[in-house]
């Protein structure tokens, strides 16, 4: 069965391309009945308020909640993470409808406005243990949310360092270059989690060439576990085995297709 990608708005095409790179068929989901034909679902990044309005218009919320409850793997990236959270703060007046299921509180636009978007190298021990490759992942944060609190059943997969008491006007790339900035001035916020069948990342793995989050998500499918686990050494960078990650300039732009 194919992987569904919610295609109301946002970076669904980039997720479909990322799935193609690891040899997985993805299909666009716009109607509730289309969810019956997919084994798992990706809710992409975009604008969560707009996406929620469109989901409401197409009466998708009941089917999305049902899909999550059935235990099928669901991965939310950025706005998709907001969709899956049980609680969101920093929402527009009147809030927005959420799918829920992920026992956490997210804060929308935690790192500031669009121009404060950034890239950061995140330590990803669990991802590297499962998928191989470098111990860190270069993550693209675009007006990203952060996870402020998680429930006991939630596994934290990645955090980003931020300056304490400063969650606006923050850019880790700049902070990395600040000489003499004391260790005690930084704290960490959670940006990737897993809870049972739900995976959520505040950043956009579909915009980079590193396919490990996509292959990690595929392993959440019980039937695929053995197959993908057996090929895990070749799933890293997928069809681009000759690709030399460490030679890639760290200022590279995201990959679009
Ligand atoms: N800030 C956006 C929102 O709240 C999410 C941004 C993104 O998905 N890149 O919906």
TrEMBL record:
Keyword field: Glutamine amidotransferase, Hydrolase, Lyase
GO terms under biological process: pyridoxal phosphate biosynthetic process; pyridoxine metabolic process
Domain of life: Eukaryota
A single GO molecular function term of this UniProt record: protein heterodimerization activity
Recorded GO CC terms: cytosol; glutaminase complex
Active site feature: 78 (nucleophile), 204 (charge relay system), 206 (charge relay system)
Enzyme Commission number, as recorded: 3.5.1.2
Key word Hydrolase present: yes
Annotated residues for binding of L-glutamine: 46-48, 108, 142-143
Ribosomal protein listed as a keyword: no
Reactions catalysed, as given in the entry: L-glutamine + H2O = L-glutamate + NH4(+)
Family: Belongs to the glutaminase PdxT/SNO family.
NCBIfam families assigned to the protein according to its UniProt record, in alphabetical order: PLP_synth_Pdx2
HAMAP family cross-referenced by the UniProt entry: PdxT
Protein name: glutaminase
Natural source organism: Helianthus annuus (Common sunflower)
High-level lineage: Eukaryota, Viridiplantae, Streptophyta, Embryophyta, Tracheophyta
